[in-house]
Amino acid sequence: MGDFKHLVIVKFKEDVVVDEIIKGMANLVSEIDSVKSFEWGHDMESQEMLRQGFTHAFFMTFNKKEDFTAFTSHPKHLEFSATFSAAIEKIVLLDFPSLLVKAPA
Amino acid sequence: MGDFKHLVIVKFKEDVVVDEIIKGMANLVSEIDSVKSFEWGHDMESQEMLRQGFTHAFFMTFNKKEDFTAFTSHPKHLEFSATFSAAIEKIVLLDFPSLLVKAPA
What we know:
Pfam families (chains A, B): Dabb (PF07876)
CATH class of chain A: Alpha Beta
Oligomer: homodimer
Order of helices and strands of chain A: EHEHEHHEE
Organism (chains A, B): Rhamnella rubrinervis
Subunit structure (chains A, B): Homodimer.
Shape of chain A: globular
Radius of gyration of chain A: 14 Å
InterPro entries (chains A, B): Dabb (IPR013097), Dimeric_a/b-barrel (IPR011008), HS1/DABB1-like (IPR044662)
Protein name (chains A, B): Stress-response A/B barrel domain-containing protein
Largest interface: A-B, 44 and 44 residues
C-alpha cells in the first residue's frame, strides 16, 4: 500500500485574497509533522468546460491513513478549516490510499 | 518551476467495469514516455457531501508542460479518451504547474 492522499479542489469566492489562504495552508502543513508533503497548483490551462469553474488543486500526502486522521483532528487544522470554508464558493474533496502505477524513472 | 500535473476526478457510470478502464489507463501511460509518473485512488473515506459523488482521482505527472501536450495529442491517448469519456457520468479536470510547498523528508 502506498501513501494516503488528501485532495481538495476548489473555486474561491471572488473577493478572496487567494495568496493569503495559500500562505495559511503552507504554515499549517509546516507546523503539523504528520503531513509528509504538500503541493498545489492553479489551473490556467485546461478547457473551461472540463474545469467546471474549479481553479485550484491542493494535495497532501501522508505515510498512512492514521497520519491523515491526526492531521484532520489537529486544533490548528480545525482553526484553518473555518477560514478556508469561508473563502470557497465550491469544493470537492477526496481522501484515498494512492496506488502508484508508473513511478518516476 | 516544478512538475506539470494532470488531475482528473470522475464518477463512473453504474454499469462500467472500472478495473478495465484503469487497466487501459495503466497501459496507456506505460506506452507513452512523456508521462513521468501516474497514480490513482478510489475514495471510500471522505464525507459524501464533500465528495459530491466523485469516486476516483487520477494524477499524471510530467517534467514539463510540453510533455503533457505531447501526451494529450498522442494517438493512443486520443483513442483511450473516447473509451474513457463514454464511461464517465461526471468529470473535473485540472492541468497546472505544481508547486511543492512541503517536500517529503
